[in-house]
Specification:
elongated
Length: 87
């Protein structure tokens, strides 16, 4: 979970993400997660969620760094799809 910021405010959201929630994983924590993934071959999947993950400034750097560090890792983006229509 890389944050709670989301373009929607769904009643069924188990973490109560919304446009009002501004909590997001920072670069330091994101890069520490990448180091753990890099040094943990038993991790096979990086499942990214948290509000709308694509709205987090660290989303693209996380995906790029994880792909570079571990080309074998499967990366899942838990996207609500509506965020793809956002500017």
């Amino acid at each position: 979970n890389i944050g709670l910021y989301c373009n929607q405010a769904c009643n069924h959201c188990h973490v109560e993400s919304s446009p009002k929630r501004k909590e997001m994983m920072n670069e330091e924590v994101a890069m520490r997660c990448i180091e753990i993934i890099k040094n943990s071959p038993s991790i096979k999947t990086l499942d990214i969620t948290g509000g709308a993950p694509e709205m987090n400034d660290q989303f693209r750097p996380i995906v790029e760094a994880a792909s570079a560090a571990r080309p074998d890792i499967e990366i899942i983006d838990r996207c609500n799809l509506t965020v793809l229509a956002e500017p």
